[in-house]
Every structure is written in structure tokens, then in C-alpha cells.
Amino acid sequence: MENRTKLLLPLQHVLFLTFLYFQTNLCIELNIINPGQSLSGNQTISSQNGRFELGFFNPGNSTNFYVGIWYKKIPVQTVVWVANREKPLHDPFSSKLQLSEKGNLVLYNQSEIPVWSAESSSNTMNSIVAVLENSGNLVLKDSSNSNPSVMLWQSFDHPTDTWLPGAKLGKDKISEKGYISWRNSSDPAPGSYFLGLDPNETGTYFVLRNGKRHWSCGTWLERVSSFSNETVVDDYTTMSYVSNSNHEEQNVYIYSVNNSSVLVRYVMNISGQVQKLVWKDDLQKWEQIWAKPKDQCEIYAFCGAYGACNQYSRPLCKCLPGFEPKVHREWNSDSSNPRHGCVRRTPLQCNEGVKDGFEEIKNVRLPASDVSLTNKKSLKECESACLRDCSCKAYSYNGNCSIWQEDLLNIQYLSYGDNLGRTLYLRLSMAEIQALRGKTKERIEWFTIKAAVAIVTLITILGLIFVSTFRMTNFSNTTNKAIDDVLIVFKFSDLRSATKNFSEKLGEGGFGSVFKGTLPNSAAIAVKRLKCQEGDKQFRTEVSTIGKIHHVNLVRLLGFCINGMKRFLVYDYMPNGSLEAHLFYKDSKILDWKTRYHIALGVARGLAYLHDECRECIIHCDIKPENILLDADYNPMLSDFGLAKLFGRDFSRVLTTMKGTRGYLAPEMISGEPITPKSDVFSFGMLLLEIISGRRNWEIILEYGTDSTYFPARAANCISNGGDVLSLLDSKLKGNANAEEVIRACRVACWCIQDEE
After folding, report:
1. CA dihedral defined by 293, 297, 301, 304, rounded to 10 degrees?
2. Locate the Apple domain: which residues (predicted)?
């Protein structure tokens, strides 16, 4: 008996320790919290598919703890939902998340004071359970209810910054579903930015900062009707819009993932961008495949008060003249968001009876919240009005006088090709004005010294050749270089790495082949390997000109690379490919008329900018669907502009190799006559006819009741003879189009291609 007791004692210890283990690691592989059970410390529950985990966590460098949901099986902790985002905990082991006997899920701090709760409002309290579903949705359910879809409470109705597949954006019968950024990477408290739908405009979504809308985008991706349950599909997700259904008022978007094994999420991030991110197993990181606003300088007051943003320089933000950072640590990196802005180095002297002065800041986007003074008829009157008002911080005059009495927000330095730039007169103390003038004088003197040195250097031809060769060919620096604060000179090794040795080919045209790449910051790029053999100097000169051209309907050139005789151009990547694919490929998504009309207008605007608004008229010479690229919102972007001039004498050879180009070339381009902007107009007319018909102009397609007439001629006859213009419309649209817009588009197309006016 004594020996038997000795054998039982170790067994009792094992059973007791096993019991403790399960008590301290509650339901590690289960997804349910039952009534009376709780989570504490490092205890967690997981969804049945093992994708999501719920428990206590501390974000970034914070010593505070929160209850949240995150992806379980990826190495980078990615939190998608936070319960107590405004009420942090200090000790997770003495705090607990408990499902009470009343059926409420309650979070208690170390003093056993409730800091957060989810109330089920059910009469069957003893059967309520908390379940972490496979979608990442935490729900309260009645386990006795035979219908598992009935939810008494769900985290999807109380989102934080992350929009998961299956969750809603917009307003349903329960509440408004909006997503609010974290305050910073270590603090999940509600930040400055909000993603939601505009209650006054169906289907419009926007981002706010301190109540100011800084970005909106029509209907989602500008592809979804506000009056039907249409869906939008891309490589990763299917986006659906739902308005009123079953007599219930709702206005929401929901998206699903096309491949259930792929992790996709939208995030309203701390810097003011809405990002679409995909987890890449091979890279072991989240890859950004879409973001709005595209440029950070578009984010309202991104650089804070008296800070100005410049999209073409690094860092993006800098203080206005006479100001310095308010919180210096916010300005330490390119990715920083200095929301506290800048402060004056020297106070204004208005109340001291001393006049202040003004510093002229040219070519900027003017600050927000101006006050218009309609009775001031001249620049001098406008300046005097500002000086007399001690609250006036700046003024601007452009035929009308505007002054600013509040802190200056939302200033942006613009490129000199941008017609939106204005001159701002910034009010400063006279001491600060004199200090700035002194610095200007010093800069002039220093420039004179450098100029003298340069003249001496020019005498030494060997030195000049050495410097030139060094600048052209030496790319051994650890980072890529920028020239004129506009273009980046990429190293060939970096481009080869970004494109995985040019393995993913997007297409090929007369100017060269295009490959997809990804930069170290996860930004997607398109790399065009050119066929030209221009010399380094001429190539750099022409590329520099192209790089200074900026328009909402032109693909942005990021930089270039010279590697021996090889030439590369690096552009923004357009995720929706070319217009050609969407018009002519059988398996592509059908573009509705509204989208086609939007694309036609965008192409026209881009061409008008190249012809009339650039310092030097640029003739594209190759307008066709293949060179119309579509961004994530299906906005049209002209590509390959400026390349005709870059190729110079080789352009005639390029024309002969362009597949299908002769269907868009103006007659004078084929006959050898001088090329003018009218050549692009002809090509635009041919493009417009294809947008209308959804087929190649030269294709012979026999349809019931029609003959095989050359389509442009058929369209011209229809317009001239008052025929049924909708019969020209792409049959895939089934007549769903604005008839007046179709007639207008057909007329413009025929005017563009007619032989005689």
C-alpha cells in the first residue's frame, strides 16, 4: 500500500501540472470563450482555420497592452482589430477578458474595473458564447440558436483601422462602418484619418484629417454603379456595392478574396493613405498594390502648420522660411509625418509698433482657409491690408486679394510646369527678413566662388573628361541618385533585383520591352528597356525634359538607368494594364460606358496638355490603346510620350515595327510629310472609335443586319445621315449608355479623322 501511494504521488503532480497548463493556456487551439471563462496574460484563442488569433498584445515600443486580433501564422505581427484602443492596460496578467454570466464580453483592468465591453442584449444569457471566426470577426452568439448566422454582437460592426474581406464600408441598418487610423505605430488610439462614405453623396468615399476632407474618388474605383449590385474584380479581390435591399436602407461596399489562401487587407494608415496590401510568402512581408492618395503631398496638412510639402524632394517636408520644426524628432526620416509642423524663429512685431515684412514664396499650392478681400484692387492694397491686421499671417494676389488669419496649412511646392502654382507672401519679422537676405547674399557670394572654380576646372580638359565619365558610369553608391530633385538615376543592379532579373514581362512595343518590378519600399514600378542607342548626354537631356512633365493623365517617369549601351526608363506601375486588354481581350472585364467616356476625356486632357501647356509642344506620335494605361481607379494615363523625340532619327524605324500602329497613324506620318499636333488628333479619333465599338477599326466583323464596311466610314455615314448611333456601340454593353454622350463622342471622332474640314 505504501509503495502504491509513492507511485500515485508523482502521478498526482503530473495531473496537477497538466491542469495548471490548460488553465494558463486557455483553449490555445479553440475559437470559443464560454460563459464564465476568461483570457489573461499570454492566453489566446484562434480561429478554426488557424489564420487569426485573439489575445493581449503591446504594439511597437509601447509598454501598454491591448486586447486585439492579429494574423497568427506570419512573422510580422499585424493587428487587424483592437478592443480597448483608447484605454490601455498596464499588466495583462492581472487583467482579464471575460464572458460574464449575463452574456457580455467584458475587459477588466488590474483593479477589476471594466474598461471595455461588448453587450449581447440577449435574454438567453447562459447560452451566449464568444467566437473568433475564420474571417477574423469576433462575434457573440446564442449557442442554442439553430441559425449560426445570427449574431448578437460582432467586431466587424466596430472596426478600427483595418478593413478585412467580408467586413463592410459604409452605412447599413445597424451603424456607420468607417475605419480610423492609429495615432502612431505604438498607439492604436484613434488618429487623424478616417475612411468612410460621404452620407451626402451616394457611393463617394473620402479620408479626413481634423474634419478636412483631403481625398475623395467618386464611386469606389469609379467603376461601380451607385444604383445596382455590380461587382468589381481584380487579381486579388472582388469588390461589391450594395445599396437598398430587402426594403432596408444601406449603402455599403464589401469585398471578397478570389484566392482563399492569399491574405489581403485594406488599411487606413497613420500617414493618411488608404493602402491595399497583400502578404507575400516569398518576401515574408506585406506588399502594397494600391494606395490613395497616390502622393503623400496630397494628404491634407501632411507637413503640419507652416510646413510645405514637395513631392519631388527628400525629405518631403520642410519648414517655410523663418520657421523651424516644433518637434524635431518628427523630421528625422523621409517616412516621418511631422504633424506638429513648424514654429516661428522670431515673433512678429505688429503689437510693438514695428512693421513686419514679407518673404515671397513662388509656385506653391496656396494654404487652406483663406479670407477673400474683394475691395482690394491691387497688390499694394492687398499687402497694406495684411500689415494692418495683426492676425494676418500671409497674403496672395492674383487679380483678387486673399489673406490668411489662421495657421498656414496644406502648402505644397509645385513643379514649374504646373499651372496651379501661385505666389505666397509670407509675413515675417524684419529681423528674420534681414537674416534671410543675409543668407541670400552669402549664397550669391558662394556661388560666385564656385563659378570661378568651375571656369578653372574647364581649362583642364582631362579633369572635365574624368568628371563626366565618373558621373555617367559610376553607380557604386549605396543609394540611387536624384537629379534636379525630379528624376532618380537607378543602378542597373537595383533594377535587375527589383524586376527579378527582368522575369515578369508586361508587354513589348516599338520603343522596347516593359517589365514589372518592386522597389525595396514595396512600391511597384514598370521598367522599360529601350531599343534606342542615343549618346549619354543627349539621352539624359531628353529624359530630364520628360521627367519635368507632370499631369494627372500622364504616366509619371520616376527615373532612368544607363548601363553601357543599354537604356532604361522607370515609371509608376499601372495595376490595370492597358486599354487594349480591356477593349479587345475576351476574358477581360467589360468596361461600362461611363468608364469609357471617362477614359476618353482623360486621354484628351493629357494630349491637350502635351500640345498646349508644356513649355515645348510634345507630339506623342503613337496614340493607340496599347499606350493608354489604367491606374487602380481606371483613370487613363498616356505612356511613351516624348519617346518619339528621344529616338530621333530612329523613330522612322520604330514606326515600321509597331504592330497595328498603322491603323492609327495620320496620313502625313505615312507619306513623310511634316508631323504636327494634328497627327495626334487623327490618332485620337481612331482611338475614340475603338472605345465606342470595342473592336479594332480594321477588323471585319459580320453582324446581323450590317455589312463589312470599314468601321470609321460606317460611323461617319451614320452620323452624317442621322442613323441610329447606338448601333455603333460595343455589343457587350447591350445598349446601356448615355445616347447624347455616344453621339458627341462619335462626332468628335469623325471630326478628328476627316480629310477635309
Report:
1. 140
2. 350-429
Cα→Cα distances 594→218, 447, 538, 634, 737, Å? 12, 55, 42, 11, 7
The answer to the question of whether 528 is labelled as a binding residue is: yes
70 backbone dihedrals φ, ψ, rounded to 5°: -145, 165
Find, among 174, 155, 176, 188, the residue nearest to 267 by Cα. Answer: 188
How, if at all, do strands 371-373 and 317-319 pair? unpaired
Q: How far apart are CA 713 and CA 500, in angstroms?
A: 47
Q: What does the alpha-carbon distance between residue 623 and residue 349 come to, in Å, rounded to a whole number?
A: 58
How far is residue 564's CA from residue 561's CA, in Å, rounded to a whole number? 10
pLDDT of residue 375: 84
* Per-run averaged pLDDT (10 residues), the chain, 757 residues: 47 44 47 91 95 96 95 94 96 94 91 92 76 96 80 93 93 82 92 80 63 60 34 69 64 88 93 89 88 79 89 83 88 65 89 79 88 88 91 92 92 72 92 77 52 62 44 39 64 90 83 87 87 71 80 88 87 90 82 92 91 80 88 88 62 44 69 77 92 80 53 83 84 88 90 78
Report, as residue numbers or ranges, the catalytic residues.
Answer: 622
Contact 204, 217 (CB under 8 A): yes
pLDDT at 476: 34
Domains 22-157 and 159-294 share a fold: yes
Cell 480610423 locates to 180
And the C-alpha cell for 447?
Answer: 556661388
Distance of alpha carbon 245 from alpha carbon 242, whole angstroms: 7
CATH code of the domain occupying 159-294? 2.90.10
Radius of gyration of the chain (CA): 31
Query: In CATH terms, is domain 474-572 a member of 3.30.200.20?
Result: yes
Q: What residues form DSSP beta bridges with 308?
A: 318, 411
Give me the helices (H) in 107-255, please. none
The beta strand positions in 452-607, using DSSP E, are 481-483, 487-489, 505-508, 512-518, 524-530, 557-563, 566-572
Q: What is the DSSP string of 607-626?
A: HHIIIIISSS----S--SGG
The domain ranges of the chain are: 22-157, 159-294, 297-435, 436-471, 474-572, 579-753
Superfamily of chain region 22-157: Bulb-type lectin domain (2.90.10.10)
- Tell me the C-alpha distance between 314 and 746, whole Å: 46
How far is 382 from 365, CA to CA, in rounded Å?
Answer: 19
Q: How far apart are CA 288 and CA 401, in angstroms?
A: 43
C-alpha cell of residue 692: 465606342
Q: What is the pLDDT of residue 202?
A: 53
3-state secondary structure of 482: strand
The angle formed by the CA atoms of residues 478, 484 and 487, to the nearest 5 degrees, is 60
DSSP-assigned states of every residue in 337-392: --TT-EEESS---GGGT---EEEEEEEEEPPSS-EEETT--SHHHHHHHHHH-TT-
**Whole-number Cα distances in Å, 14 to 2, 371, 549:** 19, 78, 75
**Confidence (pLDDT) at 234:** 60
E strands of 414-523, at which residues?
A: 422-428, 481-483, 487-489, 505-508, 512-518
Within 8 A by CB and 6+ apart from 198, the residues are 204, 205, 206, 216
Burial (CB count <10 Å: 0-12, 13-18, 19+), residue 29: exposed
Angstrom distance (rounded) from CA 286 to CA 71: 12
Please give the model's pTM, rounded to 2 decimal places: 0.55
Helix (H, G, I), strand (E, B) or coil at 475: coil
Neighbours of 240 (CB within 10 A): 17
Domain 579-753, architecture per CATH: Orthogonal Bundle (1.10)
Query: 614-652 burial string, b = 16+ CB within 10 Å, else e?
Result: beeebbbbbbbbbbbbbbbbbbbbbbbbbbbebbeebbe
What separation in angstroms does the CA of 621 have from each of 283, 534, 617? 40, 19, 12
